[in-house]
Amino acid sequence: MDMRKARECLIQEQNRRRELASRLRDHEANPADNSELSTVDQHQGELGTETFERERDLTTLTILESELEDIRQALRRIEQGTYEQCEECGKPIADERLDAKPWARYCIVHQAEMEKAVSARQ
To answer: Which long-range contacts (CB under 8 A, 24 or more apart) does 52-60 make?
Structure first.
C-alpha cells in the first residue's frame, strides 16, 4: 500500500467527518433554529419526530467522533510504521480492507471476533 495515498485518504476522511460533526454540533447548539420555541401548539407526533431526529443526530455525532479517533490513530500508525498491521495479531491487514476502511485497526478475522464479542455483551 502506498503510504502517501493512505495518508491523503485518511486526511480527506478526517476533514469530511470534522465538517459533518461540526454541522451536527451547530444544529444541537441552536435547537431554536430547527424547531419551534414552544411545545404548547405542537402535536405529539411532531414532538416525537423532533425527539427521534435529535437522538439520531446525537448517535451520528458519537459515531463520527469515534471514527475521527480511529482516523487519528491510523495516521499515528503511519508515522510509527505499523499502519498495515493488525493491532491484535500483528499480521498484515489486507489492502482491500484498508482501501474500503483506511482506518481499520484489525485484520478481517480479528474484526469479526471483536464484533462477535460486542454482540455477545448486548
So the answer is: 54/28, 57/24, 57/27, 57/28, 58/28, 60/20, 60/24
Per residue in 58-80, pLDDT (tens digit) is 999 999 999 999 999 999 999 99
Whole-angstrom distance, CA of residue 34 vs CA of residue 25:
13
- State how many domains the chain has: 2
Q: What is the pTM of this model?
A: 0.79
Query: 96: closest CA among 111, 107, 81?
Result: 107
Residue 56 shares a structural domain with residue 38: yes
Same domain assignment for residues 90 and 68: no
